[in-house]
Amino acid sequence: MSLNIPASICNNLMKATSRLWIKYLAAVILGNALYLLLSPYLPPGARHHKLVDWGTFVDLWFCLFVYGIIELIAFVLRRRSRPE
């Protein structure tokens, strides 16, 4: 059973998926960099000590924060470029 999906839909889907993965990658890299820069100033419980600890969750929140900022910037830029 094969799906007959038009090429234009596939191309648009691939472009959208690629953009999402680029945003995810940027959020993880920038979030981890921010965490590593600020880790000396974090309380000891918020630093990495083992493979999974509270530092892992703090690192995750840094990545989510950066992803939120990226999405906010994208939203504002889309809104500005939209004709009124």
- Derived structural class: mainly alpha
Please report which band the strand proportion falls in: under 5%, 5-15%, 15-25%, 25-35%, 35-45% or over 45%.
under 5%
User: What is the helix fraction of residues, given as a range?
Assistant: over 70%
Oligomer: single chain
Give the count of helical stretches: 2
Low-confidence runs: none
Number of domains: 1
Shape: elongated
Q: What's the main sheet like?
A: none
Q: How would you spell out the order of helices and strands?
A: HH
From the N-terminal CA to the C-terminal CA, the straight-line distance is 45 Å
Computed over alpha carbons, the radius of gyration is 18 Å
Tell me how many strands there are: 0
Mean pLDDT: 87
